[in-house]
Amino acid sequence: MPQSTSATPTASFTKEQRLLTPQAFREVFDAPERKIHQSHLMAFVRHSPYDKPRIGMAITKRKVPTAVARNFIKRQIREHFRTTAFKLENKDIVFIVKKPLKEINNNELKNQIIYIFKKIEKK
Questions:
Q1: What is the number of other CB atoms lying within 10 angstroms of the CB of residue 43?
Q2: Own/partner pairs for 115-118, CB < 8 Å, 24+ apart?
């Protein structure tokens, strides 16, 4: 039985797709080309000299006090990045939490993440 090939490339999340050093984060924070705002999340976007999009997250304990909640947010962002990275150009993206997530549910959080990635894809 012949195997069919999928239209989308394999979705993986490699170390090369992560912002790892404080210097890499600083470059994005100091001179972002775009800032995409949502009620609880914000993304700083900058053109990257590398051939792949890269992502970083600065989720602070002050805004999200429990490790379970911080890890949930990071998993959601990584998962959406992993599945849409092939659509993104070579951009460096850093996500931050603007205000505490106490009054937001998981579906609204996912919708905000999806909205931010759609805005990044369009430009």
A1: 26
A2: 115/38, 116/36, 116/38, 116/41, 116/43, 117/80, 117/81, 117/84, 117/88
Count other Cβ atoms within 10 Å, centred on residue 78: 16
Place of tokens 């000299």: 49
Q: 112 is written with which tokens? A: 């905000």
pTM of the model as a whole: 0.85
* Four-residue CA torsion sign, 75, 60, 39, 117: negative
**Quick one: tokens of 29?**
């924070």
Instruction: Compute how many other C-beta atoms are within 10 angstroms of the C-beta atom of residue 24.
Output: 16
Cα–Cα dist 13/90, whole Å:
15
Q: What is the CA radius of gyration of the chain?
A: 15
pLDDT digits (tens, 9 = 90+) for 83-109: 998 888 899 999 999 988 887 899 999
The mean per-residue pLDDT over the stretch 41-65 comes to: 93
- Whether the CB-CB separation of 25 and 94 falls below 8 Å is answered with yes
DSSP state of 10: P
